[in-house]
Design a protein that fits this description.
The chain has helices at residues 42-57, 79-82, 103-108, 127-132, 156-162, 168-177, 183-189, 198-213, 217-230, 235-250, 253-263, and strands at residues 18-23, 26-31, 63-68, 114-118, 122-123, 135-139, 143-145, 181-182, 194-196. By secondary structure, it is of the alpha/beta class. The chain has two domains: 18-213, 2-enoyl-CoA Hydratase, Chain A, domain 1 (Alpha-Beta Complex); 217-263. Helix 9 (217-230) runs antiparallel to helix 10 (235-250).
Length: 271
């Protein structure tokens, strides 16, 4: 995680597996290994972690969009490198910040809206990105699968996020049989928010991203942090914790600006 006094920068860094764009408070992180089905190798893993940490500590970033080049959103972990193969391709100079198993933690504890823009199939470890995003929208032709069992592997890391968005019976069946499900079934089971025709995906994602980016950024981050904290708390201790969070929130700059804007009948200015 980023230290509260740490300042990360993108200056001078060469991302070889991702494309990054910041516009209108929306930070788009695009998986860019289409020739390898956007499989996550150690370089992509480290670049994702750095990008997530950068987004977390940068106030100007209010929403993150996870997108992908090519026909496949992501094929999961790169089995060649997972089995000891050499990492090929251009050399990345992005500082080392963590291992692959930390992707979910960094994504989840970014505490900012994260939209997965799913233009194609999602396989295996790619479910980590979908399950731990706050929103997920998919093109109708996309499909989802956890085929690890067919290769003698179990999707251990995926389970932490999967059973927080899918019910247990459907989630277990999904990973036990390794069969793919359609985007429509992914929506029905809660794995994604919505499926739309491919030509409507960009508009839907950007509409939602702009909507979220227009809201109080500090309060959003504080609220999502509290959401993550109370998810596994017992009800009784959760209430005093949330009361404390509310009191802190009411004293924040965002709350003062929001209340003032309401009373003055104007749009709030979150900058």
């Amino acid at each position: 995680m980023t230290d509260k006094d740490e300042t990360l920068s993108l200056d001078g860094l060469t991302f070889t597996t991702l494309k990054l764009e910041l516009k209108d408070h929306i930070f788009t992180i695009t998986l860019n290994r289409p020739e390898s089905k956007n499989a996550i190798n150690p370089v992509m893993s480290n670049e994702l972690i750095y990008a997530f940490d950068y987004a977390r500590q940068t106030r100007d970033i209010r929403v993150v969009v996870l997108a992908a080049e090519g026909d496949i959103f992501c094929a999961g972990g790169d089995l060649r490198t997972m089995s000891g193969g050499k990492v090929d391709g251009p050399v990345s100079n992005v500082p080392k910040r963590g291992e692959t198993d930390e992707i979910s933690l960094r994504l989840r504890h970014m505490n900012k809206p994260v939209i997965a823009k799913i233009q194609g199939p999602v396989l295996a470890g790619a479910l980590l990105l979908v399950c731990n995003a706050t929103h997920a929208y998919a093109a109708e032709h996309a499909h989802f699968s956890a085929p690890e069992i067919k290769r003698g592997i179990w999707p251990f890391m995926v389970m932490a996020g999967l059973f927080r968005v899918m019910n247990k019976r459907e989630g277990l069946d999904f990973i036990m049989r390794g069969e793919r499900i359609s985007a429509a079934d992914a929506e029905r089971t809660g794995l994604i928010n919505q499926t739309v025709p491919a030509e409507e995906l960009e508009e839907l994602v950007m509409t939602r991203a702009k909507e979220l980016a227009s809201l109080a950024p500090g309060t959003m981050q504080m609220g999502l942090a509290a959401y993550n904290m109370v998810e596994d708390m017992e009800f009784d201790p959760a209430l005093p914790f949330l009361k404390e969070q509310l009191n802190t929130c009411l004293k924040s700059e965002d709350a003062r600006e929001g209340i003032a804007a309401f009373l003055e009948k104007r749009d709030p200015n979150w900058d």
